[in-house]
From TrEMBL:
<dbReference type="Pfam" id="PF06325">
    <property type="entry name" value="PrmA"/>
</dbReference>
<dbReference type="InterPro" id="IPR025799">
    <property type="entry name" value="Arg_MeTrfase"/>
</dbReference>
<dbReference type="GO" id="GO:0035242">
    <property type="term" value="F:protein-arginine omega-N asymmetric methyltransferase activity"/>
</dbReference>
<dbReference type="InterPro" id="IPR029063">
    <property type="entry name" value="SAM-dependent_MTases_sf"/>
</dbReference>
<dbReference type="GO" id="GO:0006355">
    <property type="term" value="P:regulation of DNA-templated transcription"/>
</dbReference>
<dbReference type="GO" id="GO:0032259">
    <property type="term" value="P:methylation"/>
</dbReference>
<dbReference type="GO" id="GO:0006338">
    <property type="term" value="P:chromatin remodeling"/>
</dbReference>
<dbReference type="InterPro" id="IPR055135">
    <property type="entry name" value="PRMT_dom"/>
</dbReference>
<dbReference type="GO" id="GO:0016274">
    <property type="term" value="F:protein-arginine N-methyltransferase activity"/>
</dbReference>
<keyword id="KW-0949">S-adenosyl-L-methionine</keyword>
<keyword id="KW-0808">Transferase</keyword>
<protein>
    <recommendedName>
        <fullName>Protein arginine N-methyltransferase PRMT10</fullName>
        <ecNumber>2.1.1.319</ecNumber>
    </recommendedName>
</protein>
<dbReference type="GO" id="GO:0005634">
    <property type="term" value="C:nucleus"/>
</dbReference>
<dbReference type="GO" id="GO:0042054">
    <property type="term" value="F:histone methyltransferase activity"/>
</dbReference>
<dbReference type="Pfam" id="PF22528">
    <property type="entry name" value="PRMT_C"/>
</dbReference>
<feature type="domain" description="Protein arginine N-methyltransferase">
    <location>
        <begin position="192"/>
        <end position="364"/>
    </location>
</feature>
<comment type="subunit">
    <text>Ring-like homodimer.</text>
</comment>
Amino acid sequence: MGSYTNGVVGDQSGTSNGGDGGVAVDKGVDFANYFCTYAFLYHQKEMLSDRVRMDAYYNAVFKNKHHFHGKAVLDVGAGSGILAIWSAQAGARKVYAVEATSMAEHARAVVKANNLQDVVEVIEGSMEDVVLPEKVDVIISEWMGYFLLRESMFDSVICARDRWLKPTGVMYPSHASMWVAPIRSGLGDQKSNDYESSMEDWYRFTDQTKNYYGVDMSVLTKPFSQEQKKYYLQTSMWNNLHPHQVIGTAATVKEIDCLTASVSDILEIRSNFLSTVTLQNTRLCGFGGWFDVHFRGRKEDPAEKEIELTTAPSVNDGTHWGQQVFLLDPPIRVSEGDKLNASFSMNRSKENHRLMEVEFSCEIRQYSGELLPPFRNRYFIE
C-alpha cells in the first residue's frame, strides 16, 4: 500500500484575539470571514431545528434548575437568545446574553416577546471586549463546531470563564470528548472518480489551448493536480454516518474539562490509539470523527440530572454537526480481528485560526499476524 498523503476542519461563533497561547487576529477580517454567518436567521434556524441539540440543552437547564434559580448567568455567543431565555425561565435572577453580530437585535425582540426583558440583557459585542457589572454563577454556551474544535469558539468561552465566572461557578456544558473510529464509505470512490474526471477535463483543456491558440499550458498540470487532490481527496467532509459504516472500535482522542482547560490545551491535539476491526472482509475507507459534550456541573456542585449531547453516528437523523469524514485513497482491505495502531494530530491552520489541519498515521496488523505497510495522511477541515 505504501505511504499516502491526504489533507482541515472548518466555521460557528468565536474569538478575536486567540486568547491564552493563541495568535492575534485582525478583528475585521475575522468578522468578515466568520461572525457574519451567524447574523442570518436561516443559519440560526438550522441550529434551532436540530432536535438532538435542542433537547440536550433544554433538559440540561430544566432538569438542573438548582444551578440557575436566583443566579447570574452568562450566555456566550447567544445567537437567537434561546439559551438565555431558558436560563431565565429556569429561575435565573439575571442573564447576560452576549452576541457578536447583529443577531443581537433579533435576540432582544425574542426576549421582549417572551416578557423576559427585565431578566435577560442582550449585549452586542465581542466576548473579549464586553464588560459585565458582576461575576456570574453559570456560563452557558453552544460553542461546538464540526469535530468539536472547528471554529475555535471555545477560546471565547475560556476567556469569559477566566474573566467572569465565580470561583464556585459551573459551566454548561462542563465536559467534552472527541472520538475517532475506522469507517467504510462509498464517498471515497465517488471523490476519486471526481478527481479523475477533473484531470481528464484538464488534459482536454491543455490540448485545445495548444491546438487552437498555440500556447502550451501543460507545465501547470502538476500544480493543477495537487490543487484538485486537495479539494477532492485531502479535504475532510461533513457526513451523517450510519452505525453500520463504523467498522472498528471507537477511541477517545481528547477529553476536555471546560472548567479548567486553557487555550494552550486545545491548540494542538495529539493521541495514539488502538482500534480492532469488527467486520469480516470489509474495506477501511478512512476515519470518522465526532464529539460528545456533557452537562455534569462541577465536583462540588454536581448536576442533579447529568445530560449528554452526542454527535456519534446514529440510526436516526443525527445532528447538524454530523461526523467529520477523513477518506483514505485507495481504501485498504481489512477483516475482523485486524488491529489498527494509529496516531492522530490536529492543529490550527496557520492561514485561518478557525480551520484545522489533521494527520492520521496508521499501521495495520492482520489477524494472521502479517503487518501491512503503514500509511500517513494529512487532511484539511475547511
